[in-house]
Design goal:
The structure is a homodimer. By secondary structure, chain A is an alpha+beta fold. Chain A is 35% helix and 21% strand. In chain A, strands 1, 2, 3, 6, 7, 8, 15, 16 and 17 form a 9-stranded mixed beta sheet that branches. In chain A, strands 11-13-9-14 form a 4-stranded antiparallel beta sheet, with helices on one face. A 3-stranded antiparallel beta sheet of chain A has the order 4-5-18. Chain A is globular, with a radius of gyration of 23 Å. At the A-B interface, β10, α6, α7, α9 and α10 of A face β10, α6, α7, α9 and α10 of B.
């Protein structure tokens, strides 16, 4: 890296961190309607910051749901590739709030980590690329490739607006590669490139027994308790080995080849590591698959939320009329979320005894899983960028989380997707005490610069 | 009934109802610590009302938990029997509040019903006897028997104080019969006398998997979801016929004789009636027992509350670290709540897979079920009182709810317990829109007077 840029990056660190903290103070929770204004404020903040960074054509795109921000710099020349950078500025809810050591929207540095909701997922990782572009423009006045940004505000609530926007604006967004940083590497010293992500289908289940809550003394033993019926239905969704029992659930699941299983076995993450990260007393799940395979290459059905009856302090000997669950399936290639949704819904209704009624309300259309060959030139360019900055070649692996918009990019833009993550496995995504490893933030900016430079050579 | 008393009772109705509404406005929820002051205010209100009624030695008994009120009138002569009247002025919580048609603590008359939390359970039924004594004292200056009142403020939260008070004050409370109105009759035209009540054991279950909430993308498939583990454990507590699967649970259950089953079959309440009352789509439970037997003579295990993970608006694809349930068992003679508690706790721990930890926290020591022969003279006196006022002989039956203090009275005072209820099966006890049938309130006052007069003849 040239000395002037190197010095700039060193000197800019305190300001870059302070700016990120300012963005993280905006509680842009897209799943809660009360925070709609905050999501918009986070978009406005990004617009201002992008202007200072030297980006052009900066647009706050208001939609029926949550806003997006577009920006570009297109003066590298028509012979140079174009990179589209995607990220999101909305964040997950923060409950249970009492488990946070410091408030989720008061970003706090402890040791080498920055604690805040959205620090890693995804404001911090998105901000890396804004600062990379800024560093190049301020030290050299130009970028080695053409760059476009499309940053959305509802990744955590279905990506509805961008899923509609991309097909309608494929020309505006046209690119030779799509760069996304919304994943994690294996450790601060071991970068990784994901070549597959799981998809998603989710729904809320409502079990209704009696028409109103009943006294358990007068009715207990003769009317089915909705909590009990829900527990009985939910318990029937997995067998004792952790395999999902929904008929047909695994029909379309991509079978791992011996070569791919050998490659995945190189990932230094197993029972010991997942137990240390999770604090669970024992590992769970399909015994014929490794932890990396279970979380990356196998589909799941999770009960994300469950409630019914009296859940306050004290006791109330009630037979609840209704009980509820929020469930989600992580999907793998080649599962179709619509088909899985139908299979799960049909099975839930089939499990319902005559004593209750079961309703299933899907939350959105779901997302397909994503898989891309890792010999693609843009992905190899990302690998060289990591190696330059981290001093270690990345490992190629699969990840369990999904990025809903990836499929739309792949389908509508026809460009390879480069998943260049800078999070860590213990970042507490979607949980209390989310954090971002600050050295990854600074190394991320350097890696983003190196990637743009490597792309210029293609 | 003598004309003067009859006229008095007719004219007093609007005032009696207005007084009851005033008492019902006090939100005396004993299970919620925020309402501790309200429980005390409900006791103070009763003290004032009892003074106006002409009772003597009125005492507000403060305790470590909730207060009680004692009062008496002991001038009938030592040759006359003494009746101890028990009731309670604390009430159940009111959630889900949005299902109430009118606010729970703004008592509202609609048609022949008075809607309010506590209207039937148990302020309304307790107040019947205060107004009966008042009517006799104000029209005749005396009572036909000696009367004592002990009214508690924590029936809905374990009756801790009165359970300690009765053994220590057996002389003060000594009586020839204990009269309790905290149950229901079959219809406004069909009185009933309960000769058995179910007991109770209850606990909170905590299932802990990971040490913190996890992202279902990164960990799903390899760490046991606490909601799922809880559902699997709870689902294992009943078989498909509704029978509790806890080993030894039914060991001590009293076997019904053919005679008793024939007597219970006279109760005009079956599948059709319980479906109409509950609004459930089908009846549940042990097929070899009738609805009356299931709810009166068979023990149960209910999940009164259940919660874990993300239960707010929207979605959060989390694997919760913990999940919780509040369970309760209704017990029958001769089940020992301590033994049942141990059996249930042991079984819950046995059901726990190695992937989670299960903790069981019992809420109190529980209560034995209650059973008394119905040829006892005091119970027969109650039967004659009902017949005089309602014009119909009462049916003898069993009830599913429990009144925790009944066992203490039976053991410490050695007096027969007379369960003279004035509620109705559809009073929505412990549920939204609790109500009290106003004709039952007025008929209850007359029946209480008739009972005291019948007791004087024994």
């Amino acid at each position: 890296m040239e000395p002037k840029l190197n010095t700039y990056l060193h000197d800019a660190q305190p300001r870059q961190l302070a700016e990120l903290q300012e963005w993280l103070r905006i509680p842009s929770i897209s799943t809660l309607s009360a925070h709609k204004g905050d999501v918009h404020r986070a978009a406005e903040w990004l617009v201002t910051n992008m202007r200072q960074a030297g980006l052009e054509n900066i647009t706050l795109i208001d939609t029926d749901t949550q806003p997006m921000v577009y920006a570009d710099w297109l003066h590298a020349g028509s012979d140079r590739p174009t990179v589209l950078i995607y990220g999101h500025f909305d964040v997950q809810p923060v409950d249970p709030l009492n488990l946070w050591h410091t408030p989720p929207f008061e970003p706090t540095v402890r040791g080498d980590d920055l604690f805040a909701r959205g620090a890693s997922d995804d404001k911090g990782q998105t901000f890396i690329h804004v600062k990379a572009v800024e560093a190049l423009l301020q030290t050299t006045g130009k970028l080695p490739v053409n760059v476009k940004f499309i940053i959305e505000g509802e990744e955590e609530s279905g990506s509805g607006a961008i899923n509609r926007y991309v097909p309608a604006h494929a020309d505006q967004l046209a690119a030779d590669a799509v760069l996304i940083s919304d994943t994690h590497i294996l450790s601060p010293d071991q970068p990784a490139i994901l070549y597959g992500l799981r998809g998603m289908w989710r729904a809320q289940i409502t079990v209704t027994g009696a028409s109103h809550d009943l006294h358990s003394g007068s009715y207990g033993g003769a009317i089915h308790n909705a909590n009990q019926a829900l527990a009985e239905i939910l318990a029937a969704l997995h067998d004792s080995t952790g395999r999902v029992t929904v008929p047909g659930f695994y029909d379309d699941v991509r079978v791992l080849s011996a070569d791919e299983r050998a490659s995945l076995a190189r990932v230094p993450y197993g029972d010991k590591e997942i137990l240390a990260d999770s604090g669970a007393p024992a590992v769970y799940g399909e015994p014929e698959y490794t932890v990396v395979e279970r979380t990356g290459a196998r589909p799941t059905l999770e009960i994300n939320g469950m409630w019914g009856g009296f859940i306050e302090e004290g006791f109330k000997t009630v037979i609840p009329s209704q009980a509820f669950a929020k469930i989600s399936c992580r999907l793998v290639p080649n599962q179709d979320p619509a088909r899985i949704g139908k299979l799960v819904t049909d099975y839930l209704k089939q499990l319902a005894p005559p004593t209750v009624r079961v309703d299933v309300q899907k939350s959105h259309d779901g997302a397909f899983a994503f898989l891309t060959p890792y010999d693609t030139p843009a992905i190899q360019a990302a690998g060289r960028a990591y190696t330059q900055v981290f001093g270690t070649e990345p490992i190629f692996t699969l990840e369990g989380g999904g990025i809903p918009v990836v499929n739309v990019f792949q389908k509508e833009l026809g460009a390879p997707i480069v998943l260049m993550g800078f999070g860590l496995p213990d970042d507490n995504l979607h949980a209390p005490n989310e954090k971002f490893h600050i050295p990854n933030f600074y190394n991320g900016i350097r890696t983003s610069i190196a990637f743009l430079q490597e792309m210029a050579k293609l």
